[in-house]
Amino acid sequence: MDWLLAIPFLLLAISPGHGDRPGPHRAAHRHRVLGWASVGRIIRGQVRSIREKEYVEAARSLGAGPWRIMFIDILPNVIAPIIVYTSLLIRCRSWAEASLSYLGVGIPPPTPDWGR
């Protein structure tokens, strides 16, 4: 995750493996492959923070299993930051796709996209 965040998105997106066949499906695949690290980092931090809370420790001491703790105690508290952060990423992905289209490795001109 750290190495993926250390290299700028546009440099990875125009690499030979990602920019050889422009198209809308290829652009969506590029954003899926390269865009998960930032969301994953936020989710990981939130889960690590929540699992140390008192109510999770209380559920653990009452005999709740790891699946129950994950789906009942942790997941409902992680959903809000996920929704907020992914809604903020829509704007960033739109700018990135517009930049890639400007460089010639994005979606070809007849196909409309949100970045233009």
Explain how this protein is built.
- This protein is an all-alpha fold and about 120 residues long.
- Helix content is about 70%, strand content about 0%.
- It has helices spanning about 1-5, 10-15, 25-50, 55-60, 65-105.
- It starts with a helix and ends in a 13-residue tail after the last helix.
- The model has no long low-confidence stretch (mean pLDDT about 80).
What secondary-structure arrangement, pairings included, does this model have?
Elements: H1 2-6, H2 9-13, H3 24-50, H4 54-61, H5 66-103
Helix pairs in contact: 3-5, 4-5
> Which structural class do you get from the secondary structure elements?
mainly alpha
What helical percentage do the residues reach?
Answer: over 70%
Number of alpha- plus pi-helical segments: 5
Estimated share of beta-strand residues: under 5%
Mean pLDDT: 80
What is the rounded distance between the termini? 30 Å
Radius of gyration computed on alpha carbons: 19 Å
How many strands, what sense, and barrel or not for the largest sheet?
A: none
List the helices and strands in order. Answer: HHHHH
Question: What is the overall silhouette?
Answer: elongated
Poorly predicted sequence stretches spanning 5 or more consecutive residues: none
State the total count of DSSP E strands.
0
